[in-house]
Structure formats: structure tokens, C-alpha cells
Amino acid sequence: MKQLYKLPAKFWNDHAERGLPAGELSSESGNLVWIVATEDEIKEILSDAKFYSDPWGPDDLPPGLKASAARTVKAIERQTREK
Q1: Are 76 and 16 in contact (CB under 8 A)?
Q2: 48: left (phi > 0), else alpha (psi -120 to 50), else beta?
Q3: C-beta of residue 4 within 8 angstroms of C-beta of residue 36
């Protein structure tokens, strides 16, 4: 079943541009995106965001991507707890 999620745009765009399962973009406003994703897709985004936000994760990232990944983890965890 697909559900709507609100996520930071910077990390989601990077994730989607790498061709990984990212759900479908519903709308975008400023630094946020609303996506429609399955449980498997949101788990994939969460796993990738945890890797990127980890202090031992990749180092040479575009400015702000590590912080956006950390915000993505928090956003997904908050929204999946609420459902």
C-alpha cells in the first residue's frame, strides 16, 4: 500500500537521481517534497539516509547532503510512528 510522506528535498532528490527506489514525487515546495511510496520504498530511502548521515558514512558529499540525510531519517521515523 502506498502512503504520502513529507521529506527534505535535497536528500530525496539525490537518492532518486541515483536510480534507487524512491517512490513517486507528488509535489515539491522549497526544501520539501511530498512523495507517495510503498513500505519497501520508504525502507530503502531510510536505509540510504542512515548510511549517508552516519559520521562514518561517505565524506565527500555535496554541501548539506549529510544534514539533509539526518533530517530525512527523523522525518521518516516520525511519520512511520504516526501511522
Answers
A1: no
A2: alpha
A3: yes
For residue 61, what is its C-alpha cell? Answer: 558529499
DSSP-assigned letter for residue 64: T
The answer, as to whether pTM is greater than 0.85, is yes
Q: How many residues does the chain have?
A: 83
Query: Nearest to residue 11, comparing CAs of 56, 47, 43, 52?
Result: 52
How large is the average pLDDT for residues 29-56?
Answer: 95
Do the beta carbons of residue 37 and residue 22 sit within 8 Å?
Answer: yes
Cα–Cα distance between 53 and 49 in angstroms, integer? 6
Backbone torsions φ then ψ of 37, nearest 5 degrees: -140, 150
What is the tens place of the pLDDT at every residue in 32-45? 999 999 999 999 99
